[in-house]
Design brief:
Belongs to the aspartate-semialdehyde dehydrogenase family. Keywords: Amino-acid biosynthesis, Diaminopimelate biosynthesis, Lysine biosynthesis, Methionine biosynthesis, NADP, Oxidoreductase, Threonine biosynthesis. This is Aspartate-semialdehyde dehydrogenase. This protein has nine helices and 14 strands. It is of the alpha/beta class. Strands 5-2-1-6-7-8 form a six-stranded parallel β-sheet, sandwiched between helices. Helix 4 packs parallel to helix 6 and helix 4 crosses helix 9. The longest helix is centred in the middle third of the chain and has 17 residues. The two termini are about 30 Å apart. The chain binds adenosine-2'-5'-diphosphate. Adenosine-2'-5'-diphosphate (A2P) binds next to helix 1 and helix 5.
Amino acid sequence: REYTVAILGATGAVGSRLIEQLEQSTIPVKKVKLLASKRSAGKQLSFKGQAITIEEATPEVFEGVDLVLASAGGAVSKKLLPEAVKRGAVCVDNTSAFRMEPEVPLVVPEVNEQALFEHRGIVANPNCSTIQMMVALEPIRQKFGLEQIIVSTYQAASGAGQTALDEMLSEAKDYLNGETMEGKIFPVKGDKKHYPLAFNLLPQIDVFEEDGYSHEEWKMIHETKKIMQGDMNDPKLKVTATCVRVPVVIGHGESVYFKTADTTLTAEQVKETLKTAPGVVLQDDPAHQEYPQPLTAEGKRETFVGRVRADKENPGSFNMWIVSDNLLKGAAWNTVQIAERLVENDLVHVPADPYLG
Ligand code: A2P
């Protein structure tokens, strides 16, 4: 079987990577449709060397499409993906629109691929910061049991989209030219105040909840529970997060402290486990100053882990440092990887009782 694949949000930061990852994937592609807003309709982008004209994303454009890879923002997914499902297309959604719906599997293939078998038309791709943390922690959880995660993130500007990234780069130019930096997008387009990100740190990603956590922090906590335990509210695994936007172009960093159920566990055993974990590259050699960095992770599909250290005062607990390309494993690669697994398992069918939002 060959598939007609639509990329929704093809002109965006993640969209450009979706095109590239689909070009490199094992999916037999019959036809590609590149979709964006009216503003981009008529422009051209290339797929495997062939020029493709961008179409405006409307409900009708999904006629005849088998698979949709979506990254055009939550509101667009909410409106258009049910329309695509109605027309028989299975959707893999990179936005947060449906992640917490019990009918929608939230999947990191290395962790919970089996959830794909339950899909009813829409599969959600988790938040970028959650994905790389799951890839690194699941093998440890499987082998030794996991009781608590405390994470602080260092998230790159590209995670906020192409326009936001462009703004940070132009702020940097202004700063170096001795001009005043004027933030218009960061920390969040939809919030009241804006600050420059260049040469700065912003401890706000997405809007704030009533309890003082940012929505990004909320996502990391609840998505982790849903992916690892199947239930976003399961209290067995304790998770807490602080999310910070940093002036890095591509590549999210995470300082993770975790408590296992095994008080005799050593850092060596954790490293041995990570060495053979799917999707993980252990980069941990302090004597030679080897550790994961955004600049060296950029363009790679893997999740890089290093700085593994035991907390000497709390046996069974550890610190480590995780970096991955937020546009690839954090977004486009995980999305295409899910699509590959759907194809391999013959799951590109909308069931008789589809989930329509
Ligand atoms: P466009 O370039 O036409 O605005 P990013 O996350 O990098 O900001 O990219 C967002 C993507 O979502 C772009 O491809 C953008 O297309 C697309 N997009 C934004 N609004 C809409 C919309 N209303 N309908 C379809 N695509 C949209």
